[in-house]
Amino acid sequence: MPKTKLTDAQRLDWLRLIRSDHVGPRTFRELINTYGGAKDALAALPALARRGGAARTRICTLEEAEAELKTARARGVELIALGEPDYPPRLKTIDDAPPLIAVRGDVAALSRPLIAIVGSRNASAVGLKFAATLARDLGDAGYGIVSGLARGIDAAAHRASLVSGTVAVLAGGHAHIYPAEHEPLLEELLAHGAAISEMPLTHEPRARDFPRRNRLISGLSVGVVIVEAAKRSGSLITARMAGEQGREVFAVPGSPLDPRAEGTNGLLKQGAILVTEASDIITAIEPILGRGIEPIEEPSRDEPFAPDHEPADDERGRIVGLLGPSPISIDDLVRLSGTSPAIVRTVLLELELAGRLERHGGAMVSLV
Fold this sequence. Notes:
Blueprint (H helix, E strand, L loop, with lengths): L7 H11 L6 H11 L2 H14 L10 H13 L2 E5 L18 E6 L8 E5 L6 H16 L3 E4 L5 H8 L5 E4 L13 H7 L4 E4 L11 H12 L2 E4 L7 H11 L3 E4 L10 H8 L3 E2 L3 H14 L21 H10 L5 E2 H8 L3 H13 L3 E4 L3 E4 L1
């Protein structure tokens, strides 16, 4: 991953790679680590996918990437790469950090200590008022506010922190704001804050994009506050992801008679930090900020990036035979297959680029 800014040619290679079929953040990182760079990884994609069982795979063309980059910049959107100076410091520590984020607004807002405030779209008047109070008080204390631009609690948190600075994380691309009625709110927050997305500029958000968006909300933040959440609320997904990412999880208690408080009360039973005022959050967060941000530890590699040879049929067969719908660790695959880590990584890349493999957190994989 780069330690300085990419050239435009390198940025286009990164954009082509992440926009190609079956290449997600974890696969992108594995390809870069295996082949040493996006350009060589792009050259390897067709053969990898074919060996994994795909008849063909779509690779983003240079023309498509150039068009997206040009259109983004015309809209005031910059594509920032993982490892570049402006990339949000806490976001880069999660294991599925986006290789490229599309940022519009004040980029400096992303480097401040950020607190996420999320909750019910169908929020109560009390919930909306409390979310706004929290956001305002945290802003006055020097914290930026992160949320998802959704109706209800998200919008209340954004509006209350327009002056102090707020970050909106989009489920779709910058050309498809959801909900559309919040486009004026988005334009207003850009003066002191920012909007970010990992999706293509013209991508229209679908239901499955919102949980993916939620990991960025928690990943950007030191802690996540859930104000109101029903039992099956998407905010609870954000809380779970925050816990997996090592973020603090806060919850605002509510009436046992209100279904919108069922999720937050459940979080409190599971050990979330109870919040009745901003100082509850600040007291828990300040020691974390004092420790700084732990850098990513890259795995040591004693062997060359690319394997010495293409996996043999028997090696590939042993590795595929060990896989199933239940996740298994890559270390276990290496041990049980009796092959080298480089061969196992190559076979996994083949399967993933053919759409047959799913990667999970903690270096776990499973067959689709």
